[in-house]
Amino acid sequence: MRDFPSCFGENGVQVADSSLSNTCKNAQNLITCVYQCRIRSRSCLVTVTWSKNLMGQGLSVGIDDSANQCLCKVDIKPWLFSKRKGSKSLEAYSCKIDIYWDLSSAKFGSGLEPLEGFYVGVVANKQMVLLLGDMKKEAYKKTGATSVHSTAVFVAKKEHVFGKRVFGTKAQFCDNGQIHDLIIECDTIGVNDPYLLIRLDGKAMMQVKRLQWKFRGNHTILVDGMAVEVYWDVHNWLFGTSLGNAVFMFKTILAAEEKLWVSQPIPNPSTLQWSFPQRFQDSKSQNLGFSLILYAWKNE
Question: What is the C-alpha to C-alpha distance for residues 65 and 285, in angstroms, rounded to an integer?
Fold first, then answer.
């Protein structure tokens, strides 16, 4: 998708975002989720973006092919969000794709993603490709789609977080896994020895000292019995402008991937992109790891 990293495809994974060149004000209030799905036996990526600004809340749903080329996209602009339910017909892979949404009863809480009382569905050839939300019965009734076992896999989430020294969010690293409180502490202003500390549910998982020399790097932690590779790039905080941001990525490592990761050199995060194993086999699509990408902005 154009507003999200060139994410997960047959030829690799990249983390890059044109919005990084924008100011903190322009980049805020945006959460993007990426799901790997199948349409007509072809692998594709469905990107769902929740946003909010002074005009209201917005939603966009896009579909990319395995080469990260945009096939189709629908935007529900904030100023049109008063119409909280509707549908849109698109075309991809030579078939009709219908996107349905009902947010008329959605409860959003303090976050951008609705908590309950909603559905967002992607239907192709009368089959439900992706269904989000708790109103599943209403979604199937509205769409007329057949109920089949979903093959959709939640593969990535991008989020903007804000703070002065402490940045927090919720993190879930596998389907039906525990939801953790993820805290990033990084003090770079007025200190002789800046450091980076990452906590999970209050427990310190990793600490980086002498951050001026180690402003980019990676480290493996263990979460819920899984290896999670943590990448960080805080160069902007130490040497950039006050409007610069840091980037953190948490990527679950599956057993089949461990040798690939160990054998690969540390990538060059100066371009804010990391290369992943070169191919995701279709036969292994259900075993893809999950990536959480955080863009952290300092409130001055």
Answer: 14
Whole-angstrom distance, CA of residue 244 vs CA of residue 237: 6
DSSP single-letter state for residue 169: E
Q: Collapse the DSSP code of 43 into the 3-class scheme (helix H, G, I; strand E, B; otherwise coil) and give the result.
A: strand
- CA–CA separation, 35 and 153 (whole Å): 5
Q: Token pair of 288, please?
A: 């893809």
Question: What is the Cβ-side half-sphere exposure of residue 33, based on CA atoms within 13 angstroms?
Answer: 18
Radius of gyration of the chain (CA): 20
Residue 27 tokens, joined:
């980049």
d(CA 78, CA 219): 39
Question: Coil, helix or strand for 242?
Answer: coil
In the chain, which ranges are E strands?
Answer: 8-9, 12-13, 30-39, 42-53, 56-65, 70-76, 85-92, 95-102, 119-124, 127-133, 153-163, 166-171, 180-187, 195-200, 203-208, 216-223, 226-233, 245-253, 291-298
Q: Which amino acid is at 14?
A: Q
pLDDT along the chain (300 residues), means of 10: 34 36 56 92 92 85 84 79 82 90 88 91 93 95 86 91 91 84 87 90 94 93 92 91 84 63 40 33 48 89
Residue 300: burial class (beta carbons within 10 Å; 0-12, 13-18, 19+): exposed
Q: Cα separation of 226 and 220, whole Å?
A: 10
